[in-house]
Structure formats: C-alpha cells, structure tokens
Specification:
By secondary structure, the chain is mostly helical. It has helices spanning about 5-20, 25-30, 45-65, 70-95, 100-120, 125-150. Helix 1 runs parallel beside helix 4 and helix 4 (about 70-95) runs antiparallel to helix 5 (about 100-120).
C-alpha cells in the first residue's frame, strides 16, 4: 500500500469529517420528528470514523494500482466526487437546514459511492469490500433524510 496516498486520502476524509464538527446537528435536528429507526446520536461519530478510515484505505489501495491498472484513474476520480459530495451534505443539511437540497445531494452521493464501489471492484476486491459498509450507511442516511423531510414538511 502507498502510505502517502493513504495519508492524502485520510486528509480528504478528515475535511469531510470536519464539517460534522463545524455544523453539528444541534437543537434544530433534535427538534425534528424522527422515525423510530433513527440511529442514536452517539453512534454517528463512531460509525463515520470507521467509514472514513475504510474509505481512505480503499482509495489508497487503488492509488497503488494507478500506474498499472487501466481504470484506476477513473475510479479515483469517482472517489474524489463522492468525498466532495460527502463534504457538501452536512453544511447543506445541518448548516443551511435545507432537507430537500440535502436529499438531492445525498442521492447524488449514493450514486457516486455505488459507482466508486463498482469501479473499485473491477480493480481490487478488498478495496470494493471496504466501500460496502459506506454504501449501506449512505443508503440508511438517504432514507433518514427522506423520512425527516416527509415527517417535517415545514422545517
């Protein structure tokens, strides 16, 4: 594995994670009607930390193939797209409190994560497997975003 690539990818995920610190859920979110299947608030930082580490590791594995494998460049471009969308969602949803715009962004994020995972699968099965928990979590987050919008149409 390319440790420099891992560090760079970890910095990118760290930038995305920082938006969670800059735009915490706060009272607005706690005041929303939430579905009963909403994960507990304390689960989010633990889960996101693990996911960001796995995402960085997956991308670093692919970066190590960049000179050897056709498609590695596109796979890394897709990874870059998904981390950019990931970084954007929190300020839009929690900072601007725009649930509808958040739903559009998380829909695009889901597509980008699915495409990244598929691109990684063609290059490195371990990298793709490292992305699967993230894809599942984004699926849950998108469903939660949609449910919050439905339950709180005036928010």
């Amino acid at each position: 594995m390319d440790y420099l690539a891992f560090f760079i990818c970890l910095c990118a995920t760290g930038a995305a994670a920082a938006t969670g610190v800059m735009f915490p859920p706060g009272e607005w979110y706690r005041g929303l009607t939430r579905p009963g299947w909403t994960p507990p608030d304390r689960a989010f930082p633990v889960i996101w930390t693990a996911l960001y580490l796995m995402m960085a590791l997956a991308a670093a594995r692919i970066a190590g193939l960049a000179g050897e494998a056709s498609g590695a460049g596109v796979a890394l471009a897709l990874w870059s797209l998904q981390i950019a969308l990931n970084t954007l969602w929190t300020p839009v949803f929690f900072g601007l409190r725009r649930m509808r715009a958040g739903l559009v962004i998380i829909g695009a994020l889901w597509l980008a994560v699915a495409a990244t995972t598929a691109a990684f699968a063609g290059l490195d099965g371990v990298a793709a497997a490292l992305m699967l928990p993230y894809l599942l979590w984004v699926s849950l987050a998108a469903a939660l975003n949609a449910a919050l919008l439905r339950l709180n149409p005036a928010a």
